[in-house]
Amino acid sequence: MELTLWVEQRGATEVGGNVRSALETIDKIEEFIKMTLAVMIAEVT
């Protein structure tokens, strides 16, 4: 979120919006990412 605020403060509101959208998407799929990483780590060990 700090990146979003930093970019927006410098006038790049479109870039800030893109970063915000990307962070929201990551937040929505966080559990899936965690489960996938856990499976991948388990397969390696």
What does this molecule look like?
Helix 1 runs antiparallel to helix 2. 0% of the residues are buried. The chain is mostly helical. The protein starts with a helix and ends with a helix. It is built from 3 helices and no strands.
Supply database-style keywords:
45 residues; mainly alpha; single chain; 3 helices
Give the helix/strand class.
mainly alpha
**Gyration radius from CA atoms, angstroms:** 15 Å
Number of domains: 1
How many helix segments? 3
How many β strands by DSSP? 0
User: Could you describe the largest sheet, including whether it forms a barrel?
Assistant: none
Helix coverage percent = over 70%
The backbone outline, from C-alpha atoms, is elongated
Tell me what portion of residues adopts beta-strand conformation.
Answer: under 5%
Uncertain stretches: none
Mean of the pLDDT scores?
Answer: 93
What's the order of the H and E elements? HHH
* End-to-end Cα distance: 34 Å
Task: Write the SSE topology.
Elements: H1 2-9, H2 13-28, H3 30-44
Quick summary of this structure?
87% of the residues lie in helices and 0% in strands. It has 45 residues and is mainly α. The longest helix has 16 residues, at 13-28.
